[in-house]
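subagent[fold] <- orchestrator: predict structure for attached chain, return tokens only, no commentary.
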Amino acid sequence: MKMYIKEISHHPKFYISKFTKNHNLPYVVFIHGGPGLNCGIMEYLIQYRNLFASLNCNIVLYDQRNCGRSKKTSSHVQHQDNIDDLQEIITHLADTYKLKISALIGHSYGAKVLFDYYKNFSSLIPGIFVATANSILTPRLNNLMIDLSYLKRTNFEQYNKLFNKINSRDLNKIWEISEELSPLFQENQERIYYYWANLESLNTVQEAQKQINLPVNLETFISIRKDLYSNQSNFSVDIDTLAISKLWINGFHDFVMNGHEVMMSNSKITTFYHSSHYPHIEENDRFNGLLNEFIKNP
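subagent[fold] -> orchestrator:
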């Protein structure tokens, strides 16, 4: 039995899908990660695997600019575009459908979009940050370590060359090396195991990916990543500075986002101990209960 009724919102630029369980319930807007990804997996799991079945909310998903089924443009996407687009989508939902939005949920890169949205716009909608670090330096450097570890086993000559290049804390040099290794995001088949602790959930998502066949937009991934790391003022995701009701959830096994010393010392982070980078999928029932309580008592 399907828990939600799906409806596609008519918007000239964005693919937006609304999942309604009960019209009297509030809505939450989910901002997917990436950059360059889409909401296809989440959409499939809600439709066919009853993800969020115990959630006492309706759900809105959307594909970010140039991603998935949203309109494609020839211009390179910048991070600020996604921040402005979020405001446009929230306004569209409020004006066109009169939706009561009780929370905004940002996952991974979506959490960075959400953080900067609050910095740009005077919104008091409660925010839920899932699988993020308090600086975008953390995932970038951890991903670099993953890539270098992969090179040790697959291309020792290239690894040795890069190994000798890293001799200071010069971020420009480190970003240059990281950009050089960008193709490994697709090549390294073992990378996925850093992002999942619950392998049953991983198998479910991999099956869904085969069904939806919506690839990552690599051009958008590269353009936004370059934009983010070109200016030091972009680095912060200091959630504690936001004057809103907020919830921060990380998976214990999320190597990419966790400096574990930060997670262990920050009592404001809710830790899901059987999750990695996708706690809202890997421990969905717990996530639903936490979200239900948060929306009832933000």
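orchestrator: received. Logging for downstream: The chain has two domains: 5-134+196-296, 137-194. The beta strands are 5-9, 16-20, 27-31, 58-62, 101-107, 127-130, 246-251, 269-272.
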